[in-house]
Structures are given as C-alpha cells and as structure tokens.
Amino acid sequence: MLQGSMVALVTPMTAEGALDWDSLHALVDWHIEQGTHAIVAVGTTGESATLTVDEHLAVITAVVKRVAGRIPVIAGTGANSTQEAVELTESAQRAGADACLLVTPYYNKPTQEGLYRHFLHVADTVNIPQILYNVPGRTGVDLKPETVLRLCGHPNIVGIKEATGDLDRARQLIDQTPEDFLIYSGDDETAVELILLGGKGNISVTANVAAKEVAHMCELALADKVEEARAINAKLMPVHKAMFVESNPIPVKWAVALQGRMSHGIRLPLTPLSENYHQQVRDALSGAELL
After folding, report:
1. What are the structural domains of the chain?
2. Which of 48, 58, 120, 132 is nearest to 92 (CA)?
3. Which helix (H) or strand (E) holds 134?
4. 133 is an active site residue
5. GO cellular component terms (predicted)?
6. 178-216 b/e with 16+ CB inside 10 Å = b?
7. Which one is catalytic: 133, 184, 200, 253?
8. How sure is the predictor about 1, in pLDDT bands with cuts at 50, 70 and 90?
9. Closest CA to 199 of 235, 242, 246, 162
C-alpha cells in the first residue's frame, strides 16, 4: 500500500534552467536515507508545467532508475488533454513507475461529466494504479466528491490526492469510498488531521526540506499517536506556511537550494523567490532546525 510521506519532489535545475541530473540523483538518495516513503516525480512541485514532454518523461525515468525499487515512485502524468494524459501515463508505465498521479484537466474547465469521462478513459486505457489529484486553486476546476464516488470503483483508480485542505470533504470521502480506496492529503498544514481521520498519507511539499520530520510525523499519525504527530506538525507549521508565500514551487526550490542540495534554478514564467520573503523562509527553516 502506498502510504506515509510521499514527497512531491522538486526538479533541480541549473541557474540557466537546464535540468540538473546530479542534484536530482542526490535528492532521491537523500529522501530514501531520510525515510521518505514514496517519491512523486514531476508533479506540480516538480514543475511539470515548465518541462517539455521529453524532459518530463526523462525525469520520471531517471527517478525510477535511481530509486531502483527501494521505495515506490509515483509519476505525475495529468494533462488538460485526455489523449496527452493517456500518452504520459503509458510512458510512465513503460519507465517502471509504480503508480501515476493525474491532476484534473486545467484551464479548459470541464464539467463533472467531462472529468468523469476523462479519468475513466485513462483508467480504461492504461493498466497501472492511478491516483486522482484535485487542486482547484491551481486548475480552476473542482473534482466533486460525487464524481470521485463514481470513479472509485474502477480497479485502476486507487485513491485521490485531495489538496483543498477541506477536512469535512476529506471525512466525507473517507466515509463514503471503499475501505481500500486511498485518501491522501495534498495540503501540508492539514495533513496530520486528514490522516487521523483515516487518510493514508501526505503528498508533501514540506518534505522536500524536512524529509525525516514529515516521514516520522506521518508514521505517528498512521499509528494514531495523536499528540506526538501534532507536536511535530506544530513545529513544522511555520515551514508549511513559508512554502506558499509565493506560488509553489518558488519558495520550496529556494529553500532546498538554501540547504545546499541544489542550485537556485527555476524556469520562466516562474521566477526566483522575491527578496522580501527570504528572511521569512530562512527563519521558518531555522526555527524547525532544518538549516
């Protein structure tokens, strides 16, 4: 079962914007050493929107090869074109990914019926475990619980990353979906509470800078060690907040670079973290003993 701390891995780049393969390999090794339970390659935090299709698939392949079966790899393969989502998912399957994460189609704002048919078509076409990904704040479309309930019986649709931070919605999904349908948090601030409700893990931005801490926090929450899990979360709360002072992954890439794990590379239209936020991010990391 895919559960625990699943880092939404940043994609390292040079200052000129080229992919930095050495830093990517080092980050993969570091996460495994720190206890991260799974790696999500080329999701939102991995700058899927700024990579070419060839680069997208190359990063997935590189992560799978570097992980070498030590922990699961989940490939981000969502798209606003259903056929492109199929092709990315097929390519990730060939590369050896353990599962795929498919964001709701963005910009074109499909109806709930359109969302249903989109995810159903990908699941019917590609035989690999697939996790739905709902993040309406970025995509402009909300995958409603009633649509998730229509999809959750498909054998290839195994779970959902619910990134709204809405714990009432999470509770509804946990209560109404089959027991083997996996509900993950996509919101670091509320992840512990979602797991305590019966969720299975956190697809985390914060884990990029606090891999060991987020992994331990998720393990405690899964074991129903409520106070211990909440104590770690409270210590990390300034970090959770600092990772979103500007659009993700701008702050987290700056923070990972500050820790010395990669250079300050990011691609337009994303820009480096504004200088007026540097101290806030630095203070959050220092306060959580992450520098």
Report:
1. 4-224 (3.20.20.70)
2. 58
3. strand 130-134
4. yes
5. cytosol
6. eeebbbbbbbbbbbbbbbbbebbbbbbbbbbbbbbbbbb
7. 133
8. confident
9. 162
